[in-house]
């Protein structure tokens, strides 16, 4: 079966459903969203113990939506009645948003290949083809761990596979590679169970003096860390480059040849990178572990192919939280409407602007604080 639409979005998470909603509200109806799982699948796949580090609080009536909202007029905190939501909680919220705004979502459909065409793109699954003029990648990042710099990473356990921690081999101390949010969260969850851990990291988020939450630990994580600090050792200034199994243990070798011993498979909290997806890797230039994008969040290699979500970065500004990257949903929708000559709903666009959800100048995104 072959279908055709003006805009196709791959990924039905926060970025995908949020962008689809912005497109519809601005007046672009010919859209479809495709996901290999359910709506909010990446959140459904979260560890059961993981919580949002950004609090949800209904501030919508005062010109700034709930930090974790993807529209101007919804609040996941109010909907779920929690401040720090789980992945399941947030997936429930996304499903309700998609239903309320009647977003056309095709679930459990795995796109196997993207083909560039003269007038757009052809997406192929096992049984179906989808033609589209504009393609928006909203893959998220949880499914794409950034482990390429660690030889033997297959011998470790990636953070997103920790589940409820009950399946971990019992040990007197656990090794964690990576010193940012996921690394500290793993250490905190282990400490809650009375377990000690060592975090091996080049730089630790807890030591950062930056006020940018993209560069340092969140206040939520800092507070939890202080409660369990006695059970958590931070080994800064090291880069683990290789994991080698040895009898019933594991050698962790640094880039300068120093070797540490781990009683159990080390926990990998080394970050994420969606450009590692084989589906899109040939359509984006890459710098570091992120896609290179132009001023419209569009691929510099493939015209009319956009990226939304936590992997978007511009000149050092990392849009890694929902309250950041949601400010580009309506921006991209407005750009597509402009290219197609579609008259948008100006009142809806103004609403996005009034509610701090339309960012077109990233030079203003400084986070320095006076105190």
Automatic annotation (TrEMBL):
Key words of the record: Monooxygenase, Oxidoreductase
InterPro entries, sorted: Auxin_biosynth/cation_transpt (IPR050982), FAD/NAD-bd_sf (IPR036188)
Top-level lineage group: Bacteria
Matching Pfam families: Pyr_redox_3
One MF annotation (Gene Ontology) recorded for this entry: monooxygenase activity
Gene3D superfamilies for the chain: FAD/NAD(P)-binding domain
Coiled coil segments of this chain: none
Protein name: Probable monooxygenase
Species of provenance: Marinilactibacillus psychrotolerans 42ea
């Amino acid at each position: 079966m072959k279908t055709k639409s003006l805009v196709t979005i791959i990924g039905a998470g926060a970025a995908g459903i949020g962008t689809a909603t912005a497109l519809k509200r601005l007046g672009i109806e010919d859209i479809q969203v495709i996901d290999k799982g359910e709506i909010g699948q990446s959140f459904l796949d979260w560890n059961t113990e993981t919580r949002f580090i950004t609090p949800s609080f209904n501030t919508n009536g005062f010109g700034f939506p709930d930090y974790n909202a993807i529209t101007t007029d919804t609040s996941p905190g109010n909907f779920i009645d929690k401040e720090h939501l789980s992945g399941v909680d947030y997936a429930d919220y996304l499903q309700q948003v998609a239903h309320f705004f009647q977003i056309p979502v095709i679930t459990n459909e795995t796109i196997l290949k993207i083909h560039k065409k003269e007038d757009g793109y052809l997406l192929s699954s096992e049984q179906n083809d989808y033609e589209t003029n504009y393609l928006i990648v909203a893959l998220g990042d949880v499914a794409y761990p950034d482990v390429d710099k660690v030889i033997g990473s297959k011998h470790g356990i990636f953070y997103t596979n920790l589940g409820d921690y009950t399946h971990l081999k019992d040990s007197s101390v656990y090794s964690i590679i990576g010193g940012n949010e996921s690394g500290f969260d793993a250490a905190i969850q282990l400490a809650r169970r009375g377990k000690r851990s060592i975090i091996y990291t080049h730089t630790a988020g807890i030591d950062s003096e930056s006020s940018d939450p993209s560069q340092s630990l969140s206040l939520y994580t800092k507070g939890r860390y202080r409660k369990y600090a006695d059970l958590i050792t931070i080994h800064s200034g090291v880069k683990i480059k290789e994991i080698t199994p040895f009898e019933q243990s594991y050698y962790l070798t640094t880039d300068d040849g120093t070797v540490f011993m781990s009683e159990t498979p080390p926990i990998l909290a080394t970050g994420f990178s969606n450009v590692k997806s084989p589906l899109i890797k040939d359509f984006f230039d890459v710098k570091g572990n992120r896609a290179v994008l132009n001023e419209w969040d569009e691929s510099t290699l493939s015209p009319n192919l956009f990226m939304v979500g936590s992997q978007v970065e511009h000149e050092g500004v990392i849009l890694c939280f929902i309250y950041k990257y949601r400010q580009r949903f309506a921006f991209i929708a407005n750009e597509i409407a402009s290219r197609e000559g579609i008259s948008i709903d100006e009142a809806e666009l103004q609403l996005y602007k009034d509610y701090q959800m339309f960012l077109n100048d990233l030079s203003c995104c400084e986070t320095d604080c006076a105190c």
